[in-house]
Amino acid sequence: MASPPRPNYGISRIDQPEKKNHGYYVRISHKGKSTQKFFPDKSSGGKAKALKAAREFRDSVLRKLPEQKQAYAAKKKRRIKKSGVVGVTHVVSSSPSGKVYHYWQAAWKEGKKRKTAKYSIERYGDKEALRLAKAALAKQKKS
Length: 143
Known about the structure:
Blueprint: E1 11-16, E2 21-30, E3 33-40, H1 41-44, H2 47-63, H3 67-74, E4 88-94, E5 100-110, E6 113-120, H4 121-124, H5 126-142
Antiparallel strand pairs: 1-2, 2-3, 4-5, 5-6
């Protein structure tokens, strides 16, 4: 394998006390085909051993996939900037020509229509664009 995958790539924790179902679920999809397997805590010898078994299974599945998929599994996820306000989000989009735009967006509903206000980080700077988006949302909530 090119480089190791993110620690929990393709692995989910399942805890369903009402069904006495606890363990790790591995699901890896590639080109429409999915490989999945559940590793229960109880029959694996505990939570830590179930996670270890799930990772080993996941790694064996990934080794059989193309390098590109393995590289994707290893790639760190980008952290999403958080505004601390519901309705204000950080957005990264790209144009058909490939130019990347970063902006803060305020979103709200007027009747049944969704409205947005976007503030460019390139134009205003990160802090000011965030402040403007929060202010736009606050203004809409008042009216």
